[in-house]
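new request in #modeling-help
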Amino acid sequence: MEGSFITTKFNYILGWARKYSLFHYPFVTACCGMEYMSAACAHFDIDRFGAGWTRFSPRQSDMLLVVGTITQKLAPVLRTVYEQMTEPKWVVAFGTCAVSGGIYDNYAVVQGIDQIIPVDIYIPGCPPRPETVLNGLIKLQEKIQKQQQEWRWKRRRY
Amino acid sequence: MEKKKILEELKQRFQDKIKETSVQFGDEVLVIDKDSLLDIVNFLKAEPYAYTMLLDLTCVDDLGEEPRFEMAYHLYSLSNKHRLRIKAQLSEKDLSIDSLTSVWKNANWLEREVFDMFGVFFKGHPNLSRIFMYDGFEGYPLRKDYPLRRRQPRIPLRE
């Protein structure tokens, strides 16, 4: 019991550190990219919430922003990008197309990226307003704070 | 240039190769025999008509009718500022028509698109392969008998 107190506190601190240092990788394919740019740049500025650093390499990022329509042709690419990211990693489905396919209910478009990769936060809207994006980011930070953190020397019970 | 003039001259020159002529929304429309497409197009591209630009090339699927498919070519003359539409009907049994890549370079990708979406074969095309859909995709998605909800994922989907 006394040992678990330290573990719990460490878990809390790690969550606090992780939620305010999200490096994000924008996987931008469509018009939602405009709203992403708006949210990321000075007017709305997601740097205020600790997600300021855009890394254009999935290997250096924690948060995958899937912004826009994902077609069946692009699906293997998205999965490769997700697999290239190092743990811990979170995925945000940004906009209706990434959430559910949106208006593109047809032969070419994946009906929601959760059919390809696990998703943590869904941000609806076509395209979502930057305020919605910030709201989604805050929701993701709450989730990161509350979840069980993984770290390298953590004792695994399996 | 008089609008009636071009249709009448084409009728005189190509006679029964031209099945029908009409004027729709101020633009001339020709319905031609598909085997004489290259002859007519080469004549139109030369002076004096000088239809030097191929604006678009597409296909229409009239499911349940015979002939089922109809190719549509939109030409534009830069010097005369004049448009012309050429249609050619294709039956489902013989889905092939001459390629226009020897006349206009941009026909290359447009014809690949029509091949990808409708399955029309273009005789003499240098690289007739799918342009939008991926390798292994079955069927032609813009045909009216392609099932609306049919999906062909490239990778296995999660549940």
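bot summary: The first helix of chain B runs from residue 3 to 14.
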